[in-house]
Design a protein that fits this description.
Shape: globular
Number of helices: 15
CATH topology of the largest domain: Dehydroquinate synthase-like, alpha domain
CATH class of the largest domain: Mainly Alpha
Order of helices and strands: EHEHHEHEHHEEEEHHHHHHHHH
Strand content: 5-15%
Bound molecules: 5,6-dihydroxy-NADP, zinc ion
CATH architecture of the largest domain: Up-down Bundle
Structural class: alpha/beta
Number of domains: 2
Number of strands: 8
Length: 391
């Protein structure tokens, strides 16, 4: 196991009706004037936004609102949010929604404390020193942004989807009420679940040895996803299954299961190009990317793939042919995602083979590689995109 530092300062408030505590909590964290930031309207329709307003008013807190965050959030609204924060002297941002609203809030928090262009951080040109504090009320179990140190934004000029990671932008508190996810369409529930599983895979496939504890934590989370997701798809009101998925989503990405081991993250980079070009939901894009990436990298450490197949997907170990076991595990993953209503091939998301050169170029590798389990350069990325198409 590698040396590590793990810093996860977020206070999590989990359970039914917990959104009603938001005013008191924001006050406890020093908020005076808040920006309430949300998406395309689900929080209005569900009545959640109204409950949030009431709680803030009860705590005698002043606030302004900015809605309209799109899935795969864009820089244009971030600039608007930064301007609003400066004009209104906002000192605290509350994101109400999913990863998109939270990531947009994180970007606004950074931009409001920086003299330059907030995109400098996402383009890798600068590191942040300060941010406005961000808190969240989560409405979808997926991205893990409620506990993570990351934010992903799309620059509309050129459609570059890029991330920034820094412990500074971990939320100060996150309210997780699983009941809030009961209004999700089945497709979003499924896509969110695929994203959660993908966050575990990015950590699971490692070259670091002797990481049994985190291996087992990853496998345990995956096993609970395989058990709980079908329950929620069969019965969207199954609170306990939603609760298990929601906490799995947070734990999968606040990095407690990834410490002390090299992580990969090539598949996320490949997927961000699919979201940017085809507008596909992030988790659905990952369901297309991961099986292909797994088939491509499997030979690098076939025993790790066979271990996953046996311990998580219930395959029998073929000691004479571990590769066969590994492939069976990947096939079961594809079957699981398909049964959840997710795409697993490019054709299903409108992908075209002739787009591959564009997708690879847009990765902006410039001779560099992505991922650490198997470093992926431009040629390898093209091969993996090719594998995403039906045989
Ligand atoms: O915009 P509204 O109207 O709220 O609708 C959303 C949106 O259409 C809807 N939704 C959310 N909660 C709902 C609901 N509809 C009904 N009832 C509810 N309770 O679901 C749709 C998706 O929402 P979004 O916030 O986009 O989902 P998600 O949490 O999957 O976030 C995706 C974004 O997070 C990024 C992704 O790349 C993508 O841009 N990621 C962020 C990460 C991070 N910050 O650590 C890591 C991830 O790997 C990921 O890259
Ligand atoms: Zn993700």
């Amino acid at each position: 196991m590698d040396n590590f530092r793990f810093y996860s300062p977020t206070k999590f408030i989990f359970g039914k009706d917990t959104e009603q505590e938001v005013g008191a909590l924001a006050k406890e964290f020093g908020a005076q004037k808040l920006l309430v930031h949300y998406g395309g309207g689900s929080v209005v329709r569900s009545g959640l936004l109204e409950r949030v307003r009431k709680s803030l008013r009860t705590a005698a807190l002043d606030y302004v609102e900015l809605g309209g965050v799109k899935p795969n959030p864009e820089d244009t609204l971030v600039y608007e949010g930064i301007k609003l924060c400066l004009k209104e002297k906002v000192d605290f941002i509350l994101a109400v929604g999913g990863g998109s609203a939270i990531d947009s809030a994180k970007a606004i928090g950074l931009g409001a404390c920086y003299e330059g262009d907030f995109w400098d951080f996402y383009a890798g040109r600068s590191r942040a020193r300060k941010t406005l504090p961000v808190a969240t009320i989560l409405t979808i179990a997926a991205a893990g942004s409620e506990g993570s140190e990351s934010s992903v934004i799309t620059k509309t000029d050129g459609m570059y989807k890029r991330g920034y990671s820094d412990d500074l932008i971990r939320p100060v508190f996150s309210i997780l009420n699983p009941a809030l996810t009961q209004t999700l369409p089945a497709y979003q529930t499924a896509a969110g679940s695929a994203d959660i599983m993908a966050h575990i895979f990015e950590r699971y496939f490692t070259n670091t040895g002797n990481v049994e504890t985190t291996d087992r934590l990853c496998e345990g989370l995956l096993l609970s996803m395989l058990r709980e997701v079908p329950k929620v798809l069969a019965d969207p009101d199954d609170y306990d299954a939603r609760a298990n998925i929601m906490w799995a989503g947070t734990v999968a990405h606040n990095n407690i299961v990834g410490v002390g081991r090299e992580q990969d993250w090539c598949s996320h980079a490949l997927e961000h190009e699919l979201s940017a070009l085809y507008g596909v939901t992030h988790g659905a894009g990952l369901a297309v990317v991961f099986p292909a990436w797994m088939k491509y990298t499997m030979k690098h450490d076939v025993m790790r793939f066979a271990q996953l197949a046996v311990r998580v997907f219930g395959c029998e170990m073929d000691f004479f042919n571990p590769e066969r076991t590994a492939l069976k595990g990947i096939a079961r993953l594809e079957q699981f995602w398909h049964a959840c209503g997710l795409p697993v091939r490019m054709e299903e998301i409108g992908g075209k083979k002739e787009d591959i050169p564009y997708l690879v170029e847009h990765l902006e590798l410039d001779g560099a590689t992505r991922g650490s389990f198997v470093p992926v350069g431009a040629d390898e990325a093209a091969d993996i995109y090719e594998l995403m198409f039906a045989d």
